[in-house]
Design brief:
alpha+beta; 4-stranded antiparallel sheet; 13 strands; 12% strand
């Protein structure tokens, strides 16, 4: 944003070089933290697009903005393609070089051919028009040559990307799937007071950006608004203290960069008043962090950290010592690790620190944190990975986040694990039978030679229930019932989810013993079939479940949402079952 705030004051050649550099940075960000890449690339493209349309409206030279837009876009895609896979950096770089050489050669040929044709035309013209025609023709020749370069490079780049593996298109598609559904699957509801303050900031800063756009900085205003909006989503979709601090920083940056763009005397004081307002709110947001965080920064600690700048080996030793100390907690018993030595293992749901602590031969699922496989497509990716290349062993911990039931994180993948893996002969040791605690409660699952479940069959029971209405189920002691639950967003819900977030959907379960539990369910992946007949309530019941004893039988369940207007009034459920 700082670079974009001064880019209009640069010479034309520097503008295009800046566009290429910032586009390359955006491409790198897309591969490191996708949402950061969206913010970087999106603000860049909106900036040059806004300048392009402003130039057309003012009837000034629009080609600079158009070429800068194309430069940044192609640079981002090219860098993303080069850095997509560590095993193919050099190979992909060579492919991009070939594309550049081919398109550059075509552009030079177009320039040469047009130059020859233009000279013939000028030779036939009168002496008075030669100079003016020469200037116009040179400009036209250069422009057409660039057009040829861009067309050929785009074609070469498209062919290269679609014919290469791993696929950049698949990466972007799955990343967009993750990002777009985050607003529902990972949402948390926080303080209404903080939300009201943030919305007031958003409205006031939006008015300020409208003034900036009317002052002739349309592209820059669009770029600032995109970053502000994404920061708001980042802060309040998963509403917590640590997230909203990012939004408060962004408001300060946006208002600071807006100040020099408003040169109209009568409104110059307004941005300063707004800056004071967002600064006060930022302090309100920061207070909980200052109160809850331990005061770990002391003068002696600061001096020690400064000395690390001149002694990197000491820094490396300190980091290594801290890392080893943290990993020591994750050390598993030798009797457990000896079983999986040199075997392919995976870890469910997320505790991958076990890999470094125990030197495991880890073969991760594509979405190796179960709670992040919150769409049917992502769940299917994990299922295909496990079924195509089965792991010899799986470390399983009965854990979940945000009040979910662990079986709901990746439903299709978990159903495959339950049917195709069994408890290894190694069992957690404890002073009490069937009682255990982490890390010894980590279950070790072993691959079966064949599936332990009959093929799933439809019960021919398709039900449509309304919100807060109970659905009864009946299951035998040797069968598992799955429910493909399809939630449909209303038009209002789709808009609300895109602009803000969807509040959590809960499933209230009534067990056969009369007890009740509320579990969060993910609307975006529940259509893959969640287990509903038996839902263990704790680690000990989970142990019995993997012993095929099927505890915690469910009698009925119903769904609840804070705002049911976001969804269709009815929920479709298709029941499946399999015997064990």
């Amino acid at each position: 944003l700082i670079a974009l705030s001064i880019i209009d004051d640069l010479p034309i050649k520097l503008i295009r070089w800046c566009a290429v550099s910032l586009g390359a940075l955006a491409g790198f960000c897309l591969l490191t933290k996708f949402t950061l890449g969206i913010a970087t690339a999106g603000s860049l493209y909106l900036f040059f697009s806004g300048n392009f349309f402003s130039s057309i409206k003012k009837k000034t030279n629009y080609l600079v903005s158009l070429f800068a837009l194309l430069d940044s876009l192609l640079a981002a895609i090219s860098v993303s393609f080069i850095l997509l896979s560590p095993n193919f950096y050099i190979f992909n770089f060579h492919k991009i070089l070939v594309c550049l050489v081919v398109s550059g050669t075509c552009g030079l040929l177009a320039w040469f051919i047009q130059l020859r044709l233009a000279r013939k035309v000028i030779d036939k013209a009168g002496e008075k028009t030669i100079a003016s025609r020469d200037l116009r023709s040179r400009f036209h020749i250069r422009t057409v040559s660039w057009y040829v370069f861009y067309v050929i490079y785009c074609l070469c780049l498209a062919v290269t990307i679609f014919s290469s593996h791993p696929s950049l298109v698949d990466y972007l598609k799955n990343s967009l799937d993750l990002a777009s559904n985050y607003s529902s699957a990972m949402s948390l509801v926080g303080s209404k007071r903080e939300l009201i303050l943030a919305v007031s900031e958003l409205v006031l800063i939006s008015i300020l950006l409208i003034c900036i756009a009317r002052a002739g900085n349309f592209g820059f205003a669009l770029a600032l608004f995109l970053c502000l909006f994404l920061a708001f989503k980042h802060g309040f979709v998963r509403h917590s203290v640590n997230h909203i601090v990012i939004f408060s920083w962004c408001t300060l940056i946006v208002v600071s960069l807006s100040l020099p763009k408003l040169r109209t005397a009568r409104i110059q004081k307004i941005p300063y008043l707004l800056y004071f307002y967002v600064l006060v709110i930022a302090f309100i947001f920061w207070i909980p962090i200052g109160v809850s965080s331990p005061r770990s920064i002391t003068p002696s600690m600061a001096i020690k950290n400064l000395t690390y700048l001149f002694n990197l080996s000491s820094l490396h030793s300190s980091v290594r010592a801290n890392s080893n100390s943290n990993l020591a907690v994750e050390k598993l018993p030798t009797s457990m690790t000896s079983i999986v030595e040199n075997k392919k293992v995976d870890i469910v749901p997320w505790e991958i620190s076990l890999v470094a602590a125990n030197n495991l031969n880890w073969k991760p699922r594509p979405i190796f944190q179960s709670y992040s496989a919150y769409t049917t497509a992502l769940d299917n990716l994990n299922f295909k990975s496990l079924s195509a290349e089965p792991r010899d062993y799986i470390f399983y911990d009965f854990s979940a986040i945000d009040g979910r039931h662990p079986f709901f994180d990746e439903p299709r993948t978990f159903a495959y694990i339950f049917c195709n893996y069994k408890l290894n002969s190694y069992l957690p040791k404890s002073s009490q039978q069937n009682k255990f605690s982490y890390p010894t409660n980590l279950l070790l699952l072993e691959k079966l030679s064949s599936s332990g479940c009959s093929p799933s069959v439809s019960t021919s029971k398709t039900s449509t229930v309304r919100w807060n209405n109970s659905q009864h189920i009946e299951a035998s002691d040797r069968s598992i019932i799955l429910a493909k639950v399809k939630f449909t967003y209303s038009l209002f819900g789709k808009i609300y989810k895109s602009l803000f977030r969807s509040p959590p959907v809960t499933m209230q379960v009534t067990y056969a013993d009369g007890s009740k539990r509320d579990y969060r369910i993910i609307p975006e992946n529940s259509d893959n079939g969640v287990i509903v007949s038996h839902l263990p309530k704790d680690d000990n019941e989970a142990l019995s479940f993997f012993h095929r004893q099927l505890p915690a039988q469910v009698q009925s369940f119903k769904f609840h949402a804070t705002n049911s207007l976001l969804y269709s009034p009815t929920i479709e459920i298709n029941f499946l079952s399999f015997d064990i």
